[in-house]
Amino acid sequence: MSRPAHTLSEIAAALRSAQRIAIAAHVRPDGDAVGSVLGLALSLRAMGKTVYALLEDGVPSNLTFLPETGTVLQPPYDTLDIDCAIAVDTATHERVGAATKAALGVAPLLVNIDHHPTNPGYGHLNHVDGSQPAVGQIVYELIKEGGFPITDSVLQHLFTAISTDTGSFQFPSTTARTHEIAAEMMKEGLDTAYLAQMLYQTYPARRLALMRSMLNEMQFRADGRIVSWNLKQTLMDEVKMESGDTEGIIDTLRMIDSVISAVIFEELPDGKIRVSSRSKDSRLDVSAVCAQFGGGGHRLAAGARMKGPIEAAADTFLNALEHEVRRLA
After folding, report:
1. Which listed residue, of 54, 260, 296, 314, carries a Cα 20 to 30 Å from 277's Cα?
2. What's the CA gap between 53 and 50, in Å, rounded?
3. 284: domain range?
4. Are 278 and 248 part of one and the same domain?
């Protein structure tokens, strides 16, 4: 059961009182996770607090250009002496990863800041706002509410968080306030052109090799309204894929004119299959489809983990998705 929601003012007061803080986000972190963790961490560090940034899987290679990413800790962790733990952009407590959850567990206070509507409110303090396009936007408002320091490094991380989770301000979740925040950041001198170049115009050749295979191997269903791709371990090994190389690659499939849903199935080292799904029709709730397989997320972007092999997992998931797509006709 969800605990009562807490205001940003209440959370700011709690953070002001804390002195030793750990901040974490979900496994396989994306731009919103990394940007929210480090944006808040750097602001609190500027106040003189001891702040640990924890990411179970580390910072993906496409985001290591951002400031202070080298300060992020990965397991195994030393025992942390902390009086406050913060989980950001993490729909369930377990999604921070087992080692990170244990490290955060020593704190007497857990703060949960998220924008996933399915978040059950697992913290002592919970601010879960499903109307927000990115947790980075919530963190920006929290920092402003608390009067916490805002440096250029803080802005770089929060802009990255907001930009990547809104599809560079293109997704329907983008609000007028989102654009106002970007304008405020630019007025503070943030070089958004540099960040856009690094985020969207600077890719390793191996990412293009992945895209080439994706375009050659993509499969259509439901009269072209569903497109999918199976990303296999053999290809990952062949191109020497690194974390972050597939970030946003699904949007290339989603842009096909006939497509209303795109799905990528990815083989994981443990034999499970990672499912990433997208919808561009508000009537099609891919989080509801993912929920059938123990996953979740947002209406237009969701994921799940399924038992392999990849062909069987893909067929099972796509059958469920096609059922929902054909109901729209």
Report:
1. 54
2. 10
3. 205-326
4. yes
Q: Is residue 318 part of a domain?
A: yes
For the whole model, what pTM was predicted?
0.92
Token readout for 326 is 């054909």
Question: How much of the chain, in percent, has pLDDT values that exceed 70?
Answer: 99
Structural domain ending residue among the three candidates 200, 230, 250: 200
Tell me, yes or no, whether 3 lies in a domain.
Answer: no
Assess whether pLDDT exceeds 50 at residue 148.
yes
Q: d(Cα 19, Cα 88) in Å, to the nearest integer? A: 18
What's the whole-number average pLDDT of the chain? 96
Neighbours of 58 (CB within 10 A): 17
Q: Does 174 map to a domain?
A: yes
Q: Do 226 and 176 reside in the same domain of the chain?
A: no
DSSP state at residue 96: G
* DSSP strand pairing (125-128 vs 84-88): unpaired
pLDDT of residue 2: 41
pLDDT at res. 280: 94
Where a domain ends, among 149, 174, 200? 200
Q: Are 194 and 149 in contact (CB under 8 A)?
A: no
312 and 270 Cβ atoms separated by less than 8 Å: no
Rounded CA separation 210/193 (Å): 26
